[in-house]
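Progress narrative, work stream C.
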Amino acid sequence: MPSHMGKIVLGRRSLENSHELDTYLNSGGYEGLRKALSMNPEDVVAQVIESNILGRGGAGFEAGRKWSMLKKATRRYLVINGDESEPATFKDHFLIENDPNQLVEGTIIAAYAIGASRAFIFLRGEFALGLERVQEAINSAYKIGALGRNIFGSTFSLDVVLHPGAGAYICGEETALLESLEGKRGFPRIKPPYFPAVIGLYGEPTIVNNVETVSNLPWIVTNGGGAFRALGEGRSTGTRIFALSGQVKNPGLYELEMVKTTFRDLIFSEELGGGLRDGRTLKAVIPGGVSAPWIAPEQIDLALGQDEVAKAGSMLGSGSIIVMDDSTCMVRAAWRISRFFMRESCGQCTPCREGSSWIEKVMARIEAGAGREEDLDLLMDLCDNIVPGVSWPPAQTTICVLGPSIPSSVAVGIRMFRDEFLTHIKEGGCPFD
């Protein structure tokens, strides 16, 4: 039986007024911070390292290891990445709106652990309700002494600033986010030298963590890193929120113990996804946001684990799982994804700027029924120019990973559904219309 009762970050989802401070305090809120303040910062870091929690933003880097790489300096910053912009990904949005005090408490714990005296929560500007509720949670934290000078009577002081972004997918990339936070255009920085842990916000060492990642910290500190590590398996420890969408009966958010649940469990279990609508059959699954290569129906017994999905040639990425049944036009799906990347490219790197534009043009031509058979080879050639070999994981040919993410849906679409592409070309239109 899948383990999925939301025992960590979604533990308050069924509570009325879960976003309010009283609800939070009555359900154990700020106990983790009080415990953290009774420990040395190094011991808090040690608990996070022991938990082996992987970053929940997409890259899957160990949070504790990232903290340990922070350069020694008199001034350090913490930045929380709440610019959730990956299509069909809505887990951070839910946490921001429905449990903002947990986010704020996790932010304070992280700042204490790394020795930051100022933290920034960067939220996507379109999250209007979320911005309002996080600001309310920050204000409440100041009122009860959880923020400001000498937090809860300790020697630790912290100020938290809420910053709305301007609505750009590229600002989900940590260095572009820092550029935006500094008031500049959201262009990713070249790494090296601009690894945030060495040269980050305002040129100072900075840790950038995802909303879901820091939301786990109150539980980890309260219960111990070992308790978190006991959940899951291998490198994929703890639970993780998966945003299930597409043509399933029960789309929504599911917090699952990692590795112990498979894609099949999530999609077809009656208590989870509930299976496909209208008796349809499965055609493909996008396992980790639209940057991820699709997986075929015969691969859905894969465990929901970081390494397990990577070995199968894809990634868990943002935790967004999109289900496509046999009524889906795969050409249209690949075209819309390519159009998204084309529109969201910052334009700084030639392979991304030019490649995304040409791929979208050719894909639009095929979808409109004006394609040619040689367009399939042309698309693969364009993909090869962005990512040599059109392999996964992709070669890094641009400053950030947006560029290498562009070919995945188009290339896998052609490889898995070439006949469907040819039908569009030969019949002069989409057979699903």
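Work stream C, second folded protein:
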Amino acid sequence: MDNHYYELGLNSPWMNATGFGGYLPQHNTEESITLGGFVTNPISLLPRSPSLTRNVLRYPGGFMLHTGSPNPGMKNVLKTYAKKWSNLAVPLWVHLLVTTPYEVQTMIQQLEETQCVSAIELGLAPDADAKSQTELIRSALGELPFFVCVPLDSADPAFIEKVAGLGADGVVISAPRGMMMQNGKCKQGRLYGPSLNPQMMAALHRLRGFNLPLIAGCGIFSKIQGEAALEAGAAAVQVDAWLWKF
């Protein structure tokens, strides 16, 4: 197992996935692993309220979660956490929830000024078209390394090659989106659970060879599965609902 995580500036190959840790590392993480980097909850430029249609729906092997990514906005997050971030013992990755290049550039500039952020995670809007995705990724170029979150169901070689060509420092293969029926209505959200692991392993095998670090960002629910992902080519592993003792 190669120690590619050193090249990402991490203390170990284990991280939390965005949305599963808040804005500061907690002490109640899975005891069998030690986080070598911390990823914040998604942060938007302006405050966001919870979705009116938020839900958690179980299915065999996992669950679907929709929250609307509520957060206090970049200004308020920095006001509350910037000084605390400067004292962290692990590298800090800030996950940005963006819809326009202006938002990307504005938030990254603010984060660069804090001098306590190690890298950016760029979360693309699920309805962004190819042109918008390109503009968002290109606008993230700056002083900080940045990693593009690509949902598992969108992680095809052509898109990964495109991301590499736009200057990204790596890709996080993140939780895919899905749809379920509840009371006769279609509900949408992100999928989490052990059932995603075979798809994650297949994606790692499919996407090797682009000279771009890949982070396994979903479907990891044991130390053995994480180590298998690293053996399959992942530079690091992000853990989501396993931290909740799923």
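Residues 4-244 form a domain with the TIM Barrel fold (CATH 3.20.20.70). No further action is required on this item.
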